[in-house]
Amino acid sequence: MIIIRLAGGLGNQIFQFVAGVYCAKKINCRKIILDDSSLNNYDVKRENELLKFFDLSKLNIEVRFKNILITNFRLPKLLPLNIPNYPLVSDRNFQAILKNPNKIFMLLDGYFQECLIQEDFNKEIEILKSILINNDKIKEKNGCVIHIRGGDFVKLGWNSVTPQEYYYNAIEKMKKDYHQKDFYIVTDDKNYSKTILDRLDIDYTFIGNSMYEDFYLIGSFKYRILSSSTFALWASALGDNEDSIVIAPNEWIPKHYRRIYLPNEIRIDF
Q1: Residue 258 and residue 183 in one domain
Q2: Integer Cα distance of 137 and 214 in angstroms
Q3: Of 198, 231, 16, 23, which is closest to residue 112 (Cα–Cα)?
Q4: Are 119 and 6 in the same domain?
Q5: For residue 127, is it within any domain?
Q6: Do the beta carbons of residue 188 and residue 152 sit within 8 Å?
Q7: 87 and 111 housed in the same domain
Q8: What is the torsional sign of CA 250, 252, 254, 257?
Q9: Per the confidence metrics, is the pTM higher than 0.85?
Q10: pLDDT tens by residue, 214-261
């Protein structure tokens, strides 16, 4: 059995969930329990968003949502040991555990983002694409989509990863190299977005009106400029990437370099 502690918004939940599924497939585990009780601990209550986007019945693994007392003790975070067959899995020992996993029980508690290598990420994308619920109402879009994360990112200072200069240089590259002139903005914060975009010489249109629609919209454009939000990263990774062009920032948050690349990703200097 594998138990996963869920935390954060949709992007974080996806990273945590697929890390557990990835481990389960390595050891041929047939039961996963997702404990989403900690989502109630935020100032703004979070919700378990996974069932809106993924058909878990396609996994060939029993997946249940249940509060498990042991997750409250945060043992994987407190004791991230790098020893064979160790059952407590966090970001700090994830790679070691993958090499010598416990085949009976694992407890996962972490974000499972910075600890990934490209091979892991590619396999996680493959897993999630096989269970992604398609939104047939959103077709392929022309133009370039831009995702701007405001809200809590601004309060925490994480928007410094994608300042105005980042968006300016990314837009200029889309104009010059790919002849894009129509830009569509997906954001959780229109006022913050306007402070960036109104200083740039572009015509833009706000699109999307819900988290669900925004996720699928991002992946429906061939040309994409992303924020460092894990929401946007997964929306792009699980979108149509047969011939996409994706510009994304170098860091997750300030001073945390992102080692994994999205499909067809380009990074720019600014």
Answers
A1: yes
A2: 13
A3: 16
A4: yes
A5: yes
A6: no
A7: yes
A8: negative
A9: yes
A10: 999 999 999 999 999 999 999 999 999 999 999 999 999 999 999 999
